[in-house]
Amino acid sequence: MKKNIYVAYTGGTIGMCPSAGGYVPTPGHLVGAVAAMPEFHRKEMPNFTIREYSPLLDSSEMEPADWQRIAEDIQTNYHRYDGFIVLHGTDTMAFTASALSFMLTNLDKPVIVTGSQIPLAELRSDGQTNLLNALYLAANYPVAEVCLFFNNTLYRGNRCSKVDADSFDAFASPNYPSLINVGIDVRVNAGKISKTSSNEPLNVQPISPQPIGLVRLYPGIMPELIENILRQPVKALILQSYGVGNGPGNQQMLELLKKADDDGIVIVNTTQCLKGHVNMAGYVSGNKLANTGAISGQDMTIEATLTKLHFLLSQDLTPQQVKEQMLRNLRGELSAF
Ligand SMILES: NC(=O)C[C@H](N)C(=O)O
């Protein structure tokens, strides 16, 4: 029996055409290009349906309402298909993959987010291999989680960041191994794949836009700047600190953070480093941040941290409950140390 895969086509370079102002999503273009490529219709390939969204978006336009729409689309079609592909621009692909991983509970079918760096219909496009392999994996290697496929690699979606603006090898999962590597053989990294078979129906946890501040520390950063970001209605602040979670011991800044924590603003200390995890106990300069009430972002990507905060702040939770959930591994987004 051939598998049936649902493709939610949201936009991105994969279906774009050149215009006077640069690449732009073009309705009908991708569907026509796929129909004209014989590889997609070989007998080894699954059946698939492409649902084109309107409007198609450059992913730099994506908002939480779009994450919600994609999640609900998957839920609506869940019982009719064996797997799901989300065709998406690369710019915010890691945010959407992370958001979907939190929003979709009791997932027991694959959801693979993919796209390309060069439009599918152009010479040397990476779109064909990305979409072809994503369809093939969704049908034959059903990983029951939200994944991201790019450059012959299947990643856990909430572990990814876009790390290269130019290369086909545009994504990395610095703190978690890839799930599958596609070469001459398809290499499944056994043990890394969660194959849950849940009897519970798929559930979509609604998500809404949340006022979240994001500050990257730099030498000489002024406390007034942080004070401004902490003004109402902010509910959480992500600090991108140095190394294992260190920051300057500026008393004014530490007092601002302490006051924000007392006021119920959730402060999450993440690292500017691409790889590794936060350990605020390592240095006095990290300890001072911990003493303000800031919690550790551990080894979460910035995309996972931000979308997890959206997910939790969209629920009826106290700041203390949000902190507890942030520290807990909900969907494989963080490692236990
Ligand atoms: N490669 C891409 O898809 C980039 C594009 N700007 C997007 O994110 O939609």
UniProtKB/TrEMBL annotation:
This is L-asparaginase 1. Keywords: Cytoplasm, Hydrolase. GO terms for biological process: aspartate family amino acid metabolic process. GO terms for molecular function: asparaginase activity. Pfam families: Asparaginase (PF00710), Asparaginase_C (PF17763). Its main location: cytoplasm. The active site is at residues 13, 90. It catalyses: L-asparagine + H2O = L-aspartate + NH4(+). Homotetramer.
